[in-house]
Amino acid sequence: MGSAHSSCSLLTTSSTQHFCFPQSPICVSKLRPANQNQIRSIKFTSHSFRCCSSPQNLPLRCNQVGEFETQVKSFKTMADIHGIDQELLNKIVYDALVWSSLHGLVVGDKSVKRSGTIPGVGLVHSPIALLPGSFPETHWKQACELVSIFNELVDRVSLDGKFLQESLSRTKKADDFTSRLLDIHSKMLQMDKKEEIRLGLHRSDYMLDEKTKLLLQVELNTISSSFAGLSQIVSKLHSDLLDQYGEVLGLDSRMIPENNSGNQSAEVLAKAWTEYNNPSAVIMIVVQAEERNMYDQHWLSVHLRKRHNVKTIRKTMAEIDREGELQSDGTLLVDGQAVAVVYFRAGYTPIDYPSETEWAARLLVEQSSAVKCPSISYHLAGTKKIQQELAKPNVLERFLDNKEDIAKIRRCFAGLWSLDDKDIVRKAIEAPDLFVMKPQREGGGNNIYGDDVRKTLVRLQKEGNVEDAAYILMQRIFPSVYPTIFVRDGICHKDHAISELGIFGAYLRNKDKVIVNDQCGYLMRTKVSSSNEGGVAAGFAVLDSIYLT
Amino acid sequence: MGSAHSSCSLLTTSSTQHFCFPQSPICVSKLRPANQNQIRSIKFTSHSFRCCSSPQNLPLRCNQVGEFETQVKSFKTMADIHGIDQELLNKIVYDALVWSSLHGLVVGDKSVKRSGTIPGVGLVHSPIALLPGSFPETHWKQACELVSIFNELVDRVSLDGKFLQESLSRTKKADDFTSRLLDIHSKMLQMDKKEEIRLGLHRSDYMLDEKTKLLLQVELNTISSSFAGLSQIVSKLHSDLLDQYGEVLGLDSRMIPENNSGNQSAEVLAKAWTEYNNPSAVIMIVVQAEERNMYDQHWLSVHLRKRHNVKTIRKTMAEIDREGELQSDGTLLVDGQAVAVVYFRAGYTPIDYPSETEWAARLLVEQSSAVKCPSISYHLAGTKKIQQELAKPNVLERFLDNKEDIAKIRRCFAGLWSLDDKDIVRKAIEAPDLFVMKPQREGGGNNIYGDDVRKTLVRLQKEGNVEDAAYILMQRIFPSVYPTIFVRDGICHKDHAISELGIFGAYLRNKDKVIVNDQCGYLMRTKVSSSNEGGVAAGFAVLDSIYLT
Fold first, then answer.
1. Which of A77, B59, B121, B326 can pair with A490 through a Cys bridge, CB separation 3.0 to 4.6 Å?
2. What digits encode the pLDDT tens for the residues B363-379?
3. What distance in Å separates the CA atoms of residue B137 and residue A97, rounded to the nearest whole number?
4. Which of A169, A271, A313 is nearest to A507 (CA)?
5. Are A276 and A340 in contact (CB under 8 A)?
6. What is the rounded average pLDDT of the residues B57-84?
7. Stretch B308-330: mean pLDDT, rounded?
8. Which segments of B are annotated as binding site?
9. Does position B30 have pLDDT exceeding 70, yes or no?
């Protein structure tokens, strides 16, 4: 899930709508179908906040807003970044492009056919923001503080098979993909399959709501969280540029938080490999047949080999089916090699399962003793429907004991409702611009927003099956829009942007022993802000890092 | 000069010719016109030794051969490298391509138009040999030992303006490019211009003659010696691959000599910058307008900035003319910036001087107080004609005092003759396959070899102007042919190859103080061996490193 397979439109900040929401603000996002021939990974679920200045019908969560307003410095944008002298700008861009080329900040160029299958050809610098985006330190700290709680939460949710099955029972009917995942999950429950070593490499994505100054979670990715490899390098690029140009720009590289997302992720994979305790076993990266973001993944493999002498192999789902077998002790052999850890960088979207072959591969992996990153339970725990269920009153309490932790988590929840909430459905019909209808199915598919929300809800009501429809309602988040300099395909482009901050989290436990429960670096993605929804399809999103203010 | 602007055909090792030469073996090389739209830098002057087994007319230099035969281990090729298991081979190739992409071992792809002007786009891994080529340790040591002597020799030759002018007087008539360089040189002599700080970043290129086991110099590049940046990385790639696969291949990464060619070159540039003693001055890299080998150069710039906080600027000859000016104290200003060191990575070929503009730029630089790498004198000292003059009896003695040094240098000289040597002209007509006619003009142009040597010489004799023709005669060197695995554009290709070893040398002095006189890493280039001369134009030459045997 996550950036690797969801992308979203941007909405303007201008709006004539003026009201906000009771329990939590209202979130809208739009997914578009994943396209395997593009760098999927730089798309992201964006939520833009059109308005929330003048409550209408619904009061603001004033106490919370107030709390943050006292804590938080104002969300500054980079001081007139668009005003940088053109000659200086050209130099910085040139240096950034050279730096990227020399330091492996690269992706496969989609205009070069072989670039998704053969490394070393058709390389192009990763799309980047030239300079890091401003982010308030308080919110940064808040996001970091949430990591270990979410890690723990996912683990606990994953152990509650009944909760997962029940919560997703309606989704099962409406979405074949979730249904197939649930089938595997059911089989594991029937087998009483225990995952003693549990590994999560998650990424929790947030947006900062402009008006309320609330850090709101967009989604929690528990499978195939991409960009740990490249994000680390983007932060180094930005640090390097500020070391060089910081003085003239009035910026200090020390304000970019250290980001070792790639190395730390690899470290945790190595620890999981160690726990598995078979020195001759490998780590298997499950990949798509074409992957233009392969270097992001390769950075982890290189670290694993150089620092830990751990070998990685790369296999598609189809190859796993063809070459995989289970030994009687549960060992997964693929192409004759024992697999200690299965690291999914594919398998999160229906597109990755074009035939029964791939489903057989997923089942095979799940049945094995290999450490799965993620297991089917972890995967399901990261679905939008579960996100929505967890947002319901008293659900978090089922999994977490510490009241403070619960409060912290709840504070970052955007509004999430199922369609059986009649009040919300009525409100969404009245003010569709403040909501988004998200299909429950994972891995792509368009969200519904704007007046289409109203139309769709009205139609579903008439048809009498609002509750069964495969949608949830989410609050639309409206993040700050600020000037940015995008660099893509060697071309520099000034525009206004919105950003989404992803915090990587790693969780590893072996039976009762929690070995890792840590933050693991971060990913900032920045996307052009545009009133033209159609323009979004151009996918002008770039890798970024943050500059604490 | 050097790899950056000369390339050459390969000849087969099979031959019906069987005789060798008296003073030194006979060398043949072939230049083809430089093509600005290609990566020129991986072409090299190759000399393949067809035969030298059965003396005919001319005796072998037996004492020297014998001396080497007792010293040198046999020139082993990598143990049946073509026999590597295909699956293993695929893995190594894949890893090599990934490694190259992540570690900046890249060039601009000539199929992408912008790749020579805009960094970060149209990147492709550098063409490489998959594994390092065997090279005898004794010859390696011999080549290293020669560095400081050649460095000193160039410096001394450069100070003898009369020698340069006289030696090149005939070339001046025949070659306009050399003539223009000599004009600038004359002006400097007239001005009594002194270069107190003298900087050379040379590369002496050698081939190992298969039959005689002699290390023979192909050429000495005193301007624009390319690949210091990437060569260092190729050696690291090879070390890394052997760390990973050495056991199964029976190879030990420690047998690859350490190669810090890029960093060391940058260090010496930084030292020259320090000697110039203007903290606000920059190092100017003189570049071609299109340069697909730009990353090779950028590696040096990055080192200069990161380690020494020295700024580099990149300017074409035309830009230098447009933006450059001399201050009354001799300071060179370009675009308003004082230039401490001018590092030429262009200007070595007539193609770089399409108009008077570029010649004006070269003169401007030469008149300035900036440290030139190289000065016009250093440039001229590296011409083929001077190489040939130095090979004449008693000429080295004019510049070097130490008899041992002279003997060492002479030992690596291939046969080099001017066309006024009637005996050699006669021998070349009799046995043209053992010679090559090299045009004296620098920077491109086809060599003449095979039966065309005979035809051309006979024609020139009839016309009565053999001596004035702009050619020299060189011994053709026939290096070992050994199996290699080429990787180019993501494609692996097994073939037989010949190699040329370049040793980088750095020389820096300020008045009487020699600050640096060192070896500075190395460059191994390997090219497919082919009996089809036309096939050479495909330019299948790759970056390589060496494996000591």
1. B121
2. 999 999 999 999 999 99
3. 40
4. A271
5. yes
6. 44
7. 98
8. 203, 219, 221, 223-226, 291-293, 297, 345-348, 384, 438-447, 449, 474-477, 500, 525, 527, 533, 536-537
9. no
Report the distance separating Cα B121 and Cα A112, nearest Å: 12
Say if the Cβ atoms of B305 and A103 lie within 8 Å.
Answer: no
C-alpha torsion A194→A199→A201→A204, nearest 10: 50
Across the range A105-116, mean pLDDT stands at: 96
Joined together, the tokens standing for residue B527 give: 């090219």
Give the nearest chain B residue to A97 (CA atoms). Answer: B120
Rounded Cα distance between B24 and B26, Å, is 6
SS3 of B245-294: HHHHHCCCHHHCCCCCHHHHHHHHHHHHHHHHCCCCCEEEEECCCCCCCH
Question: Residue B57 — left, alpha, or beta (φ > 0 → left; ψ -120 to 50 → alpha)?
Answer: left
DSSP state of B327: -
What value does the mean pLDDT of chain B take?
84
**Mind telling me how many Å the CA of B106 is from chain A's nearest CA?**
8
Q: What is the mean pLDDT of residues B15-29?
A: 30
Rounded Cα–Cα distance for residues A206 and A215 (Å): 6
Return the H-helix or E-strand segment holding A472. strand A471-475
- A347 annotated to a ligand binding site: yes
What span, in angstroms and rounded, lies between the C-alpha atoms of B108 and A490? 13
Q: Which two tokens stand for residue B253?
A: 């990464």
Per-residue pLDDT band at B7 (split at 50, 70, 90): very low
Kindly give the residue spans of alpha helices, DSSP state H, lying in B25-124: 62-71, 86-102
Give the H or E element holding residue A436. Answer: strand A435-439
Instruction: Please give the average per-residue pLDDT across B123-131, as a whole number.
Output: 97
Looking at CA atoms only, how far is residue A453 from chain B in angstroms? Answer: 41
Contact A221, A382 (CB under 8 A): yes
| Residues A216-256 pLDDT 10s | 998 999 999 999 999 999 999 999 999 999 999 999 999 99
pLDDT at A377 over 60: yes
List the beta strands (DSSP E) in B309-452. 312-315, 324-326, 332-334, 337-344, 371-373, 416-418, 435-439, 448-449
Query: What's the complex ipTM?
Result: 0.86
- pTM for the full model? 0.86
Q: Is residue B93 within 8 Å of B130, Cβ to Cβ?
A: yes
Rounding to the nearest 10 degrees, give the CA dihedral for residues A527, A528, A531, A533. Answer: -60
Angle of the A422-430 helix axis to the A451-463 helix axis, nearest 10: 140
CA distance A361 to B286: 57
Rounded (to 5) percent helix, strand, coil in chain A: 40, 25, 35
pLDDT tens-place string over residues A452-492: 999 999 998 888 776 666 788 989 888 989 999 999 999 99
Asked if residue B378 lies in contact with residue B344, where contact means CB atoms within 8 angstroms, the answer is no
Distance of alpha carbon B180 from alpha carbon B175, whole angstroms: 9
Q: Are B321 and B361 a contacting pair, CB within 8 Å? A: yes
* Residue A496 host element (H or E): strand A491-510
Strands (E) in A127-248, as ranges, are 128-129, 133-135, 197-208, 215-221
Mutate to test the interface with B, among A102, A118, A240 (most CBs of B within 10 A): A102
Which three-class secondary structure state does DSSP give residue A38?
coil
Domains and CATH numbers, chain A: 81-414+477-548 (no CATH), 415-476 (3.30.1490.50)
Using an 8 Å CB-CB cutoff, list residues of chain A that contact chain B: 94, 96-104, 106, 109, 114, 118-125, 244, 294-295, 298-299, 301-302, 305, 489-490
Sheet strand arrangement including B106-108:
A106-108, A123-125, B123-125, B106-108
pLDDT above 80: residue A28: no
